């Protein structure tokens, strides 16, 4: 398992970062949409194991906010996209109430969560790209979050003594969580030196650590969904990692935290935001 985890990371990571750095939006956006769609389908399988129609409708609902953001990368598009999902999904569950019986409201709530948890969060990739030097911020976020995942995993395995959330995940520890945040900070410092030498290093580090903390919450939320479904992983797409949702659960929560922190700091003049 450990060897598969490393092999998958070594193969997939260079491809992903090449797509971001040299492919640009024409290549990167299809990758983002496809990855989010797969994660939506995996979440749908966890939430609706006996309702394939609801799973595929969930994929469409989850992709609605993201697609709107790809077409128009402005946070203002999220409200109408999510409103449309809310109203149309409510009509759908009302119309099929007989099929759901007493589970209809719960199923609808989970369905709308799919759109907000996955689609809403993933849409912030588009907004982040639109910032000056957008691809550098995306690289910083992904490297920082993935480093945090690795730091939490290895520190937790070697030094972990105190369980972080034993009811959700037996493997996560308090020591691992701090190891992850330390790895967030280390990755941020390295990428500040390589990509952001004109910015304040402390602002880069603090922003990345805050996003990393949000990412750890996202990891726990995914664990909660899997625990509710009685599943260990969301899928088997990525050997050693599980499914797509297992790989991007932390990224999804980190994205909006990272973007809005940057937007606030841009407004406050904390960053120069040099293009490139």
TrEMBL record:
Gene Ontology MF, one: phosphatidate cytidylyltransferase activity
EC numbers: 2.7.7.41
Record GO biological process: CDP-diacylglycerol biosynthetic process
Gene Ontology CC entries for this record: plasma membrane
Pathway: Lipid metabolism; Phospholipid metabolism; CDP-diacylglycerol biosynthesis; CDP-diacylglycerol from sn-glycerol 3-phosphate: step 3/3
Transmembrane segments: 77-98, 105-131, 137-156, 177-196, 202-222, 250-274
Location of this chain's protein in the cell: Cell membrane
Catalysis performed (reactions): a 1,2-diacyl-sn-glycero-3-phosphate + CTP + H(+) = a CDP-1,2-diacyl-sn-glycerol + diphosphate
Domain of life: Bacteria
Keywords (A to Z) from UniProt: Cell membrane, Lipid biosynthesis, Lipid metabolism, Membrane, Nucleotidyltransferase, Phospholipid biosynthesis, Phospholipid metabolism, Transferase, Transmembrane, Transmembrane helix
Listed Pfam families: CTP_transf_1
Membrane topology category: Multi-pass membrane protein
Recorded family membership: Belongs to the CDS family.
Annotated protein name in UniProt: Phosphatidate cytidylyltransferase
Species: Dissulfurirhabdus thermomarina
């Amino acid at each position: 398992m450990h060897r598969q985890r490393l092999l998958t990371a070594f193969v997939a990571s260079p491809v992903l970062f090449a797509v971001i750095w040299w492919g640009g939006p024409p290549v990167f956006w299809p990758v983002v949409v496809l990855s989010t769609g797969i994660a939506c389908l995996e979440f749908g399988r966890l939430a609706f194991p006996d309702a394939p129609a609801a799973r595929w409708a969930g994929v469409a609902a989850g992709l609605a906010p993201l697609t709107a953001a790809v077409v128009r990368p402005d946070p203002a598009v999220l409200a109408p996209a999510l409103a449309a999902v809310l109203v149309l999904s409510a009509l759908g569950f009302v119309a099929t109430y007989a099929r759901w019986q007493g589970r209809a409201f719960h199923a609808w709530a989970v369905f709308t969560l799919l759109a907000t948890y996955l689609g809403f969060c993933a849409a912030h990739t588009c907004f982040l790209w639109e910032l000056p030097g957008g691809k550098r911020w995306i690289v910083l976020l992904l490297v920082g979050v993935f480093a945090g995942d690795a730091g939490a995993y290895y520190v937790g395995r070697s030094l972990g003594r105190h369980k972080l959330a034993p009811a959700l995940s037996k493997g996560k520890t308090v020591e691992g969580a701090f190891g992850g945040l330390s790895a967030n900070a280390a990755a941020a410092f390295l990428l500040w030196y390589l990509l952001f030498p004109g910015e304040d290093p402390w602002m880069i580090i603090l922003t990345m650590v805050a996003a990393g903390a949000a990412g750890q919450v996202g990891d726990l939320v995914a664990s909660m969904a899997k625990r509710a479904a009685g599943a260990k992983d969301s899928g088997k797409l990525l050997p050693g990692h599980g499914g797509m949702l297992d790989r991007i659960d932390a990224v999804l929560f980190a994205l909006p935290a990272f973007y809005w922190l940057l937007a606030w700091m841009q407004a406050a003049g904390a960053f120069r935001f040099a293009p490139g």
